[in-house]
Design a protein that fits this description.
The protein is an all-alpha fold. The chain has a single domain, classed as MetI-like fold, CATH 1.10.3720. It is 83% helix and 0% strand. Helix 1 packs antiparallel against helix 7 and helix 1 crosses helix 8. The relative contact order is 0.15.
Length: 222
């Protein structure tokens, strides 16, 4: 195990960095997607409610690995049938899109629940003061909702971090993919996967502690 760390530590750290980069990119886009569809779901227009519900249910109903294959292989193949021969997505681009879409569906539910946890009287009071719906949501409701959403968002970050391992199937050089490479080179699967597992564990436990600490502070502030 020590020999593996000595010989491959730079590759392992690089793979961990790429894993975290993919997670952060995906979560950033997922926040935007989640906010859009959450606002559709809490709005008063039924057509927007329907669109938001369809997106959330459809994406959550498709396994991430299938979504990754569809984006990485299916979309370029579909575009080629339209005459565009040079179009392709990198593993990072396809992985970010797949994770963002998947995480975005769950973020939409987290944000929707956060908004609905705010007393409806807050919206009514702000509207009575002359603010329109958009300003009331942005200035009054969302700031209160975010406090309750933060622990769930961090938990979703942890889930997304673990989901990056699935993207080894499309060749993205994240931590799990690097583990496959090292195990194949050294023929020491037990030691290699123990190292990979410990690296994931350190990051995930650290994030879990942060989430619990933030949740504790929020509860104290209430």
């Amino acid at each position: 195990m020590i020999a593996i760390i000595q010989n491959y530590w730079s590759m392992l750290l690089s793979a961990l960095g790429k894993t975290l980069l993919l997670t952060l990119l995906s979560l950033a886009f997922a926040m935007i997607i989640g906010m859009i569809f959450a606002l559709m779901n809490v709005g008063r227009k039924r057509i927007f409610n329907m669109i938001g519900t369809i997106y959330v249910d459809a994406v959550r109903g498709v396994p991430l690995i299938v979504l990754a294959y569809f984006i990485y292989f299916g979309i370029p193949a579909g575009i080629k049938t339209m005459g565009v021969q040079d179009f392709r997505l990198s593993a990072l681009q396809a992985g970010t899109i797949a994770l963002a879409m998947n995480c975005g569906a769950y973020m939409a539910e987290i944000i929707r629940a956060g908004i609905e946890s705010v007393d409806k009287g807050q919206m009514e009071a702000s509207r009575s003061l002359g603010l329109n719906y958009g300003k009331s949501m942005r200035l009054v409701v969302l700031p209160q909702a975010i406090r309750t959403m933060i622990p769930s968002i961090i938990n979703q970050f942890i889930i997304t971090l673990k989901d990056t391992s699935i993207l080894s199937v499309i060749g993205f050089p994240e931590l799990t993919n690097m583990g496959k490479t090292i195990a194949g080179n050294t023929f020491q699967s037990l030691q290699t996967w123990a190292i990979i597992g410990v690296m994931y564990m350190i990051v995930i436990i650290t994030l879990s502690k942060i989430a619990k600490n933030i949740e504790r502070r929020i509860n104290r502030g209430r």
